[in-house]
Amino acid sequence: MQTLPLRSKVLRNGLELEKCIFPTDDIEDGFHLGFSSGDKITSIATFFWEDYPDDAVGGVRLRGMATHPDHTGKGQGAAIIKFAVNELSSQNASYIWCNARKIAMGFYKKLGFEVISDEFDIPGIGPHFNMIKTLT
Ligand SMILES: CC(C)(COP(=O)(O)OP(=O)(O)OC[C@H]1O[C@@H](n2cnc3c(N)ncnc32)[C@H](O)[C@@H]1OP(=O)(O)O)[C@@H](O)C(=O)NCCC(=O)NCCS
Q1: What's the domain count of the chain?
Q2: Which of 36, 99, 107, 133 should be mutated for ligand 1, with most atoms under 8 A from CB?
Q3: How do residues 53-84 score in pLDDT, each as one tens digit?
Protein backbone atom coordinates (compact mmCIF):
# COMPACT_ATOMS: atom_id res chain seq x y z
CA MET A 1 0.00 0.00 0.00
CA GLN A 2 1.40 3.40 -1.00
CA THR A 3 -1.05 5.51 0.99
CA LEU A 4 0.75 5.39 4.33
CA PRO A 5 4.20 6.49 3.07
CA LEU A 6 2.58 9.42 1.27
CA ARG A 7 0.50 10.35 4.33
CA SER A 8 3.59 10.16 6.49
CA LYS A 9 5.72 12.30 4.19
CA VAL A 10 3.16 14.97 3.29
CA LEU A 11 0.87 15.13 6.32
CA ARG A 12 2.76 13.78 9.33
CA ASN A 13 6.35 14.94 8.92
CA GLY A 14 7.79 11.45 8.46
CA LEU A 15 5.92 9.81 11.34
CA GLU A 16 6.20 6.02 11.45
CA LEU A 17 3.73 4.38 9.10
CA GLU A 18 1.65 2.54 11.73
CA LYS A 19 0.84 5.89 13.34
CA CYS A 20 -0.44 7.22 10.02
CA ILE A 21 -3.32 4.72 9.97
CA PHE A 22 -6.71 6.37 10.57
CA PRO A 23 -9.14 4.39 12.78
CA THR A 24 -11.65 4.72 9.94
CA ASP A 25 -9.39 3.31 7.21
CA ASP A 26 -11.27 0.02 7.00
CA ILE A 27 -14.72 1.41 7.73
CA GLU A 28 -17.59 -0.04 5.74
CA ASP A 29 -18.48 1.99 2.62
CA GLY A 30 -15.41 4.20 2.99
CA PHE A 31 -12.93 4.38 0.13
CA HIS A 32 -9.45 5.57 -0.69
CA LEU A 33 -8.59 7.30 -3.96
CA GLY A 34 -5.16 7.59 -5.49
CA PHE A 35 -3.85 9.41 -8.54
CA SER A 36 -1.14 7.39 -10.26
CA SER A 37 1.86 8.81 -12.08
CA GLY A 38 3.39 5.80 -13.80
CA ASP A 39 3.74 3.08 -11.17
CA LYS A 40 3.59 5.51 -8.23
CA ILE A 41 0.60 6.89 -6.36
CA THR A 42 1.29 10.62 -6.09
CA SER A 43 -1.95 12.06 -4.71
CA ILE A 44 -4.35 10.49 -2.22
CA ALA A 45 -7.49 11.09 -0.20
CA THR A 46 -9.84 9.05 1.94
CA PHE A 47 -13.64 9.36 2.14
CA PHE A 48 -16.10 7.82 4.59
CA TRP A 49 -19.67 8.42 5.67
CA GLU A 50 -19.80 10.70 8.71
CA ASP A 51 -22.13 13.63 9.26
CA TYR A 52 -20.69 16.97 10.22
CA PRO A 53 -21.74 17.43 13.84
CA ASP A 54 -24.02 20.43 13.28
CA ASP A 55 -25.23 19.62 9.80
CA ALA A 56 -27.70 17.41 7.98
CA VAL A 57 -27.56 13.68 7.37
CA GLY A 58 -25.91 12.23 4.26
CA GLY A 59 -22.49 13.67 5.01
CA VAL A 60 -19.16 12.25 3.91
CA ARG A 61 -15.90 13.19 5.57
CA LEU A 62 -12.71 13.73 3.61
CA ARG A 63 -9.41 12.98 5.32
CA GLY A 64 -5.78 12.62 4.33
CA MET A 65 -5.76 14.80 1.21
CA ALA A 66 -2.14 14.87 0.11
CA THR A 67 -0.16 15.32 -3.11
CA HIS A 68 3.52 14.41 -3.26
CA PRO A 69 5.57 17.65 -3.34
CA ASP A 70 7.10 16.67 -6.70
CA HIS A 71 3.61 16.58 -8.20
CA THR A 72 1.74 19.52 -6.70
CA GLY A 73 0.13 22.07 -9.00
CA LYS A 74 -0.65 19.50 -11.71
CA GLY A 75 -4.34 19.10 -10.96
CA GLN A 76 -3.97 15.72 -9.24
CA GLY A 77 -5.66 16.75 -6.00
CA ALA A 78 -8.46 18.42 -7.94
CA ALA A 79 -8.93 15.26 -10.01
CA ILE A 80 -9.37 13.22 -6.84
CA ILE A 81 -11.95 15.60 -5.40
CA LYS A 82 -13.86 15.73 -8.69
CA PHE A 83 -13.89 11.94 -8.95
CA ALA A 84 -15.20 11.69 -5.38
CA VAL A 85 -17.88 14.32 -6.03
CA ASN A 86 -19.17 12.33 -9.02
CA GLU A 87 -19.05 9.03 -7.17
CA LEU A 88 -20.68 10.36 -3.99
CA SER A 89 -23.34 12.26 -5.93
CA SER A 90 -24.32 8.98 -7.56
CA GLN A 91 -24.56 7.50 -4.06
CA ASN A 92 -26.87 10.40 -3.04
CA ALA A 93 -24.48 11.93 -0.53
CA SER A 94 -25.56 15.42 0.56
CA TYR A 95 -22.19 17.00 1.24
CA ILE A 96 -18.46 16.44 1.77
CA TRP A 97 -16.71 18.08 4.73
CA CYS A 98 -13.22 18.16 6.13
CA ASN A 99 -10.86 19.71 8.63
CA ALA A 100 -8.99 21.95 6.19
CA ARG A 101 -5.52 23.17 7.01
CA LYS A 102 -5.38 26.93 6.80
CA ILE A 103 -2.59 26.64 4.21
CA ALA A 104 -4.81 24.46 2.00
CA MET A 105 -7.99 26.55 2.18
CA GLY A 106 -7.37 28.05 -1.26
CA PHE A 107 -7.28 24.56 -2.76
CA TYR A 108 -10.64 23.64 -1.25
CA LYS A 109 -12.21 26.97 -2.18
CA LYS A 110 -11.20 26.41 -5.83
CA LEU A 111 -13.13 23.14 -5.64
CA GLY A 112 -16.30 24.71 -4.25
CA PHE A 113 -15.84 24.17 -0.52
CA GLU A 114 -16.96 26.89 1.91
CA VAL A 115 -15.73 27.68 5.41
CA ILE A 116 -18.23 26.70 8.12
CA SER A 117 -16.29 27.13 11.36
CA ASP A 118 -14.06 29.45 13.24
CA GLU A 119 -10.34 28.74 13.12
CA PHE A 120 -9.20 25.94 15.43
CA ASP A 121 -5.85 24.37 16.20
CA ILE A 122 -4.93 20.71 15.85
CA PRO A 123 -1.91 20.26 18.12
CA GLY A 124 1.26 19.46 16.23
CA ILE A 125 -0.37 20.16 12.85
CA GLY A 126 -1.58 23.74 13.04
CA PRO A 127 -4.53 26.01 12.30
CA HIS A 128 -7.60 24.57 10.58
CA PHE A 129 -11.13 25.45 9.50
CA ASN A 130 -14.02 23.12 8.83
CA MET A 131 -15.03 23.34 5.17
CA ILE A 132 -17.98 21.85 3.32
CA LYS A 133 -19.01 21.22 -0.26
CA THR A 134 -22.70 20.70 -0.89
CA LEU A 135 -23.52 18.08 -3.52
CA THR A 136 -26.46 18.64 -5.80
C1 LIG B 1 -3.22 21.03 -0.83
C2 LIG B 1 -2.79 19.95 -1.82
C3 LIG B 1 -3.53 18.65 -1.49
C4 LIG B 1 -3.17 20.40 -3.24
O5 LIG B 1 -2.91 19.34 -4.14
P6 LIG B 1 -2.47 19.60 -5.66
O7 LIG B 1 -2.50 18.28 -6.35
O8 LIG B 1 -1.21 20.37 -5.70
O9 LIG B 1 -3.66 20.55 -6.15
P10 LIG B 1 -4.11 20.88 -7.64
O11 LIG B 1 -2.90 20.97 -8.52
O12 LIG B 1 -5.15 19.90 -8.05
O13 LIG B 1 -4.74 22.32 -7.45
C14 LIG B 1 -6.07 22.66 -7.81
C15 LIG B 1 -6.20 24.16 -7.72
O16 LIG B 1 -6.01 24.59 -6.37
C17 LIG B 1 -4.93 25.51 -6.29
N18 LIG B 1 -4.19 25.24 -5.06
C19 LIG B 1 -3.54 24.09 -4.74
N20 LIG B 1 -3.01 24.17 -3.50
C21 LIG B 1 -3.34 25.42 -3.04
C22 LIG B 1 -3.09 26.10 -1.82
N23 LIG B 1 -2.40 25.52 -0.81
N24 LIG B 1 -3.57 27.37 -1.69
C25 LIG B 1 -4.26 27.96 -2.68
N26 LIG B 1 -4.57 27.33 -3.86
C27 LIG B 1 -4.09 26.08 -4.03
C28 LIG B 1 -4.09 25.25 -7.53
O29 LIG B 1 -3.34 26.40 -7.90
C30 LIG B 1 -5.15 24.91 -8.56
O31 LIG B 1 -5.74 26.09 -9.03
P32 LIG B 1 -6.17 26.26 -10.60
O33 LIG B 1 -7.33 25.31 -10.79
O34 LIG B 1 -6.54 27.68 -10.71
O35 LIG B 1 -4.97 25.85 -11.40
C36 LIG B 1 -1.26 19.72 -1.79
O37 LIG B 1 -0.60 20.95 -2.02
C38 LIG B 1 -0.76 19.13 -0.49
O39 LIG B 1 -0.71 17.91 -0.35
N40 LIG B 1 -0.37 19.98 0.47
C41 LIG B 1 0.23 19.55 1.72
C42 LIG B 1 -0.74 18.74 2.56
C43 LIG B 1 -2.04 19.46 2.82
O44 LIG B 1 -2.07 20.60 3.24
N45 LIG B 1 -3.14 18.71 2.58
C46 LIG B 1 -4.45 19.20 2.89
C47 LIG B 1 -4.79 18.74 4.28
S48 LIG B 1 -6.30 19.49 4.84
Answers
A1: 1
A2: 107
A3: 877 899 999 999 999 999 999 999 999 999 99
